[in-house]
Amino acid sequence: MKHIRRTSSVLFGAGLLVLAACGSDSTTSAAATTATPTSPAPAATDAPAVTDASTDTTMPMMPMPDYAAGMKLTLSSPAAGVTVTDNTVPLSVAAAGFELSCDHAGKPLAEGFGHYHVLLDGALVDMECTTDTSVSMQNVAPGEHTIAVVPALNDHAEVMDNETEFAFTYAPTSPLAEIADAATTGDPSIKIVSPKPGEVVNGDFDIVVEVSNYDLNCDLYGKPGLFGIGHYHVNVDSTSGPMMGMMTMLGMGCTTTFHASTVGLESGSTHTLIALLADNGHAPLMPAIEASVEVTVG
Ligand SMILES: [Cu+2]
Questions:
Q1: Is the ipTM beyond the 0.85 threshold?
Q2: CA of 244 to the centre of ligand 1 (A)
């Protein structure tokens, strides 16, 4: 086996995202023009002194744009303290002060657009752009748990001050069979089948991948790591930088088709789409297992 199994969901603690909110390449100019040095970052006091080898700890803290404070979420259901007997927890979330747009995710910041992250017991499950979603209880032990929703900017930096969390009790009437390590013996791999190199893409388009020796599983997002099971991320132009390279992540896929969009990318520009295998805790496999294709925006 070439890759290392990682149980890394704790690396994705929400605070880390705040800590790593600075851009990678345009940091200097962006900070110079948008930073307000006299007022501290809104979430700075919440940021823990957490460091990890997988994050770029040399990156200075950057204040969130002013509009971030106005990005709010309301969780209309379920009610706090509810007992969940099904194996999914449905969420009903309303956004105010911004438009939910996964098309903008991983792209440059744009006032008025963002998405939200769902966290189970503090571990990132997924990014969401719809008002109704759900969290699977696959590989979740019965008992007390929390789910949180937090507004996120296009670069996935979380507006921690506007996080909403609720506690619930998971008491399944028919518990799911636990999923264990995969029995795969080959090396995992991923290929991008579509688009083809050099293809011109415009508007909505699909990225189709082929994955071998690695089980894609949506229900295990944010759950403890398992050998040979996970999902993939799709990034644009870069997989490095803080937040495990997530600032340029368009989204995550657990089926072989990922719906992408050229929204937020300039017409005529050329970009590299990168699909990389990640574990349940969203850490890219190490060493990286990825595929890329260069496309032009029509
Ligand atoms: Cu992920």
A1: yes
A2: 10
